[in-house]
């Protein structure tokens, strides 16, 4: 038996991501019957089913789940090859794939990237947002903006500063509910906005001492999307933790500034192998400069 073609694995990866044959076919630009034949051919080659089909949809089998991390690595490598080829074919342009947290990608990076596009309109940008740490060594992204010191080897990394975080609320909320006088005054008398289940949020708060354990139960409004937390604070829903620079940008009121404060480091990192790429160096240097300015805005 010959090894299954990469094209078949691409179709499997698409189904695993999309959750259905029809959506996967659209994502790949194929007809649904063609994609179905790909999966059938792969199941025949592997000698086992990849999905259990039921009226409720597709459920990946243990075999498919075992293949999933390898499919992700293959897809990342293929996308990386396309980006690198685009840069070789177009010495002035090409693609740069950035990884950043939800809040950095939604609130901080857009104006910085807008400046970059004005300077380098031929360079295309892909932005992937996640609070998990993307693996630069396997090229999930070309450049990452991280809120902690990078630990992977063979990286070019630059610390651009720190961003301070504190409690904020809208002026309207403070007018309605009053200004808290202490940490103990928060929970019984105020509405708090915070995390639900995300480990990164919990780990970021582990070194913060507010006189009591910070758990999800103290929050009246819970979401693991940082951008949604900021939106909730800006809507006057309650008090939430926000970077100082963003709190000032949106006219929010500091709350218990002397009782609650912590800082996050900001780093820009990329694989050493990309140092010779013009577009990567341009983006790396631009991010360092732009985020350094943002860090200065966030000082108390």
UniProtKB/TrEMBL annotation:
Sequence ranges assigned to domain HTH lysR-type in this UniProt record: 4-61
Keyword Transcription: yes
Key words of the record: DNA-binding, Transcription, Transcription regulation
PROSITE patterns, A to Z: HTH_LYSR
One Pfam family of this chain: LysR_substrate
Official protein name in the record: LysR family transcriptional regulator
Keyword DNA-binding: yes
Organism: Phenylobacterium conjunctum
Family: Belongs to the LysR transcriptional regulatory family.
């Amino acid at each position: 038996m010959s090894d299954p073609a990469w094209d078949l694995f691409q179709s499997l990866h698409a189904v695993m991501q999309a959750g259905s044959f029809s959506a996967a076919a659209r994502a790949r630009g194929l007809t649904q019957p063609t994609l179905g034949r790909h999966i059938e051919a792969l199941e025949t080659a592997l000698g086992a089913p990849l999905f259990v089909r039921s009226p409720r949809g597709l459920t990946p089998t243990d075999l498919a789940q075992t293949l999933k991390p390898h499919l992700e690595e293959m897809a990342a490598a293929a996308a990386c090859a396309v980006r690198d080829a685009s840069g070789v074919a177009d010495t002035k342009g090409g693609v740069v794939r950035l990884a950043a947290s939800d809040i950095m990608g939604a609130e901080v990076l857009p104006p910085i990237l807008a400046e970059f596009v004005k300077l380098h309109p031929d360079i295309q940008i892909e932005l992937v947002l996640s609070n998990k740490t993307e693996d630069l060594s396997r090229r999930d992204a070309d450049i990452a903006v991280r809120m902690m010191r990078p630990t992977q080897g063979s990286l070019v990394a630059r610390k651009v500063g720190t961003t301070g975080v504190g409690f904020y609320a809208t002026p309207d909320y403070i007018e309605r509910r009053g200004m808290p006088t202490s940490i103990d005054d928060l929970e019984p008398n105020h509405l708090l906005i915070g995390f639900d289940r995300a480990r990164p949020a919990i780990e970021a708060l582990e070194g913060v001492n507010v006189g009591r354990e910070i758990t999800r139960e103290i929050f009246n409004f819970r979401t693991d999307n940082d951008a949604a937390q900021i939106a909730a604070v800006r809507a006057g829903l309650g008090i939430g933790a926000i970077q100082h620079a963003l709190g000032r940008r949106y006219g929010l009121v500091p709350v218990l500034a002397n009782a609650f404060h912590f800082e996050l480091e900001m780093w820009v990192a990329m694989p050493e192998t990309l140092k010779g790429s013009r577009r990567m160096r341009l983006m790396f240097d631009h991010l360092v400069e732009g985020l350094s300015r943002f860090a200065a805005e966030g000082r108390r």
